[in-house]
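Tutorial, part two.
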Amino acid sequence: MRGPDPRVVLGLHRSRHERRLLTRALDLGVTALDTSTSYLGFRSHRILARTASDLLPSFTVSTKVGYFPVLGGAEHSLDPVRLHTAVERAAEDLGREPDLVFLHNPEHSLREAAPRNQELLVQACTVLDDAKAKGLCAAWGVASWDPSPLLSLIDTTTPRPSVLMVRAGLLVGARTLDAGDALTKAWELDDGAIWGMSPFGGSTGAPVWAKIDPRVFLRNSGRLSRVQAAFRVAYHLPRVASVAVGTDDPAHLGDLVGALVGEVEEQTVQDYRSLL
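Running the prediction step on this input gives:
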C-alpha cells in the first residue's frame, strides 16, 4: 500500500531564524515550520513573530513544550502547571495559536519519576489534550528522542496524540526504530501521523556520509547525491510522512526538496532493518 506523499518540515533547531530562509521555503513549497519554546535560547517564538509575522500565516507551525529556562541553562519538567503556562505563552509570543504542540522528550523526566512515571505521563498528555479543547492549539503530539521508556507506560488512560515525532534515518539504531513502531501501534496512529527528525544524525558533514553511499537504497540512484539519498531513505526508517530537518542554507533546503523525487527500494530497506 502506498503511503502518504513525503513532506519536508523546516526545523528551526540551531537555526538563526533568518527571513530569507523562510521566504525560500515558501518558494519551494515548504509550508511547515517546527520549533520549540527552548530553541534559540528560549527566544524562537518572539523572534519569529518579530521578523516574519507576515509570513507565519502561510505556514503551519508546530512547537514543543517540556524544557524551561533556569539560571545557566535549561531543565526538563512535566509539571502540569508549567506545561499549560508554556502552551499559553507560545500562543502569545507567536501572535497566533500553534497548529501543533508537541510534548518534548517526555522520557527525559519519566526515567527518574518511577513509580509515578505513568501517572506523570498521563497528566502531561492530558494538559495538551485540554489545551487543544480550549483552542490553545489545533492539535498536539509527542516528540521523543528515545521512545523506549514510553512503551510500558501507555494504556487506555493515556490520551492519544495526533502526531508522533521520532528520530529517522540510517543512523538510528534498531532498538529506537522498533520502539517507534511499537509506540505507533500502541497509539493506533497511521503513517500520516508519524514524523521523523534528525535525518542526518546531526550534520551532513559527519565523516560517515563520506564512507557510505545511501543511493544503494534507491531505484533511480543516479539522479541524487549521497546527502539527498540519505534524506529520502529517512522517510522509510521508520516509515514517516514528514521529516523535520534544520538548515540555514536555502540551497541545501532546495536540495532536500529535490530529493523527494527519489524512489526508495523497499525490499532493500527491509533487508537493512533485518541486518540491524
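The beta strands are 7-11, 32-34, 60-65, 67-70, 73-76, 100-104, 140-144, 163-167, 194-197, 242-246. In part three we will examine how such features are distributed along the chain.
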